[in-house]
Structures are given as C-alpha cells and as structure tokens.
Design brief:
The protein contains seven helices and 14 strands. The chain has about 350 residues and is an alpha+beta fold. It has three domains: about 60 residues, RNA-binding S4 domain (Structural Genomics Hypothetical 15.5 Kd Protein In mrcA-pckA Intergenic Region, Chain A); about 80 residues, Pseudouridine synthase, CATH 3.30.2350.10; about 150 residues, Pseudouridine synthase, CATH 3.30.2350. Strand 9 and strand 10 form a beta hairpin. Helix 1 packs across helix 2 and helix 6 packs antiparallel against helix 7. The two termini are about 35 Å apart.
Length: about 350
Amino acid sequence: MIEQAEKITFTIGKSQTGQRLDVFMAQKDTGLSRSQVKHVVEEGDVLVNGLVPKVSQKLKEGDIVELTLNPAKDSIAVAQDIPLDIVYEDEAIIVVNKPAGMVVHPALGNPDNTLVNALLFHCKNLSGIGGVIRPGIVHRLDKGTSGLIVAAKTDEAHRNLSTQFEKHEVHKTYQVLVWGDVKGNTGEIFLPVGRHTTDRKKMSTKSKCGKEALTLWKARERYGIATLLDVEIKTGRTHQIRVHLSSRGYGVIGDSVYGGSGKMRDIKNAELKNALKKLNRQALHAAKLSFLHPVTGESAIFAAEVPDDLKELCQALRKYAGVNPAEGVRKNWKDALREL
C-alpha cells in the first residue's frame, strides 16, 4: 500500500497525438481503469503541462502528463467478523468463494455485512486503490451471484490485476441455468451492453451508449424446459450474462430483473415447483477464475463447486426431464458435451 504520494510522468509521443487523456491513461501501466482515471482527474491528481485538464482532453506530441498516486485514506467500511470461504490467499491477493446474497462492497442500502467488511476483519492490509468504500476490490459479482472473486492486498497487485482485466486477460467461467431448450451446442453473443434508456437500475443491449461485450456459451445439460450452460465472458460489463442471455430469449432462472422468473407459473410438477421456489436468487455461479499472479507471473487457476441450492435445483430438473446424470442429456438426445 502506498505510504506517501508517488508521481508518475509520461511524455506524449507522435503516435499518441490525438488520444483522449482518459484513454491514454487507462492504457498505461497504472492499474487505473477509465472510470478510475476520471475520478483521479476530477480530484486534481492528473496534470497536463502543469495544468488541470478535462478527462476528454486531446493530447499533443510533447505534452507532459503527471499522475499523482496518493496514499490510501482510512477505509470508511468497518471490519466485521463474517465467515469467508477462502479458496487461496498469500501476501498479495485473496480469492474467495462468495455466497449468494452477499454484496461485494458497502453502498446505499447495504452499509455493512459485505465482502469488504469481512475482508477488513480477516486481512491486515488491503489495496487502497478502490477508495474508502471499496478497498481491495478489483472486480465485482452481483449480490445474487455466487462464486469466485479475487481481491488485492497491495496497490501493486491491484494495478496488475486491473490491467489484466482491462486487457481481457482474466478468464471467468460461470455455470448458469436458463429457461428454455437453448438452440445449438455452443455459441456466442456479441452485443453492446449499456445503461437502460428508461430504467437506470437496469442494463440493456439497446443502449445508445453501450460498450462492446462478448459472451461465449456451451450447453452442459438439457432438461427440455431449461438448460444448464457453461458461460465464459470475454468482457466484464455490468449484468452482462443476464442481459445477453435474456436478449436471446433465455432468461436466467430466478432473475426477476431480466425476465428469468416469468415461467414459474407454467410449472405444474409440485416437486420441481418447490425446488424453484427455494431458489431466492438468479441461478448463476462463478465457477472458474484464472489470471497471472500479479507477483510471480505464474498462471493461477481456481475453481469453486456449485453451491447446494443450484445442485438441488439441477437434481429436480433432471428428475423432471428424465435426464441421465452420467450423460448430461435425455437419452434420446445424442449431443452430450464433454465438460469444460
């Protein structure tokens, strides 16, 4: 963690002429995303030729850009003794299997009992780059999503991991239960994701300000009325998996925001209906996470078993559909896929 202010200076070359300041800064090895660059610019921690710039300022050859990385402020979030399912931990990072229902960091309506509160109790130090509310947080999972998340203990680890996320070098694979018999065995969804035009709490593939997003999927098990998918996201847009699958007509089971709960009323089987009612979140689990360790540079690969609530629902769906678990599909379907 930075103990005193650190200054980093860049000189703009000919090939960088015309670039926006935020784009240039996000491409440099500072660990800052474009949104973080916007924050530090607004805080006055970036100067261009000694003057406070706008985020959108176009750079010219010979410009001097100076970035000041200030020591982390004491976190507002309070340490709380909350159990953690720790998958891996060393001096630089900690990988946690987050349970569904846990919010990642304090926010309006969720001031405590978050992953950050738990990490502050468990760890002596966390990276300060995330600010006073999000120390150590490099990426996020939705409250209703279970699975793997990595947090940084040092600023150096945070910058390194942030750069890997920005360059799409971090690999994230999810297991997802969706409504419907998904057509095909594999596929991809390449649609922009941005803020919904009328509902600011939702995301949409039809936003005028959407950013490119790529989702890859593979069918794991089929139940006729539902499909279990392995999903890999190549970009990390907010609600990306839920929005992309919903746009194809395959809402994530249990997702009341993007249409994954509407088919509950069509289920007549009592046992299956009870299993669905017991699921109080979207059927989405971050099962695999891999990246290069920010200190050693070695490949780090982690896996988290599907939690009991999703296991039980899959078992109920198998029984309902007559699926042979060893094959992963109904006997009259011959396209069983090997696991990832």
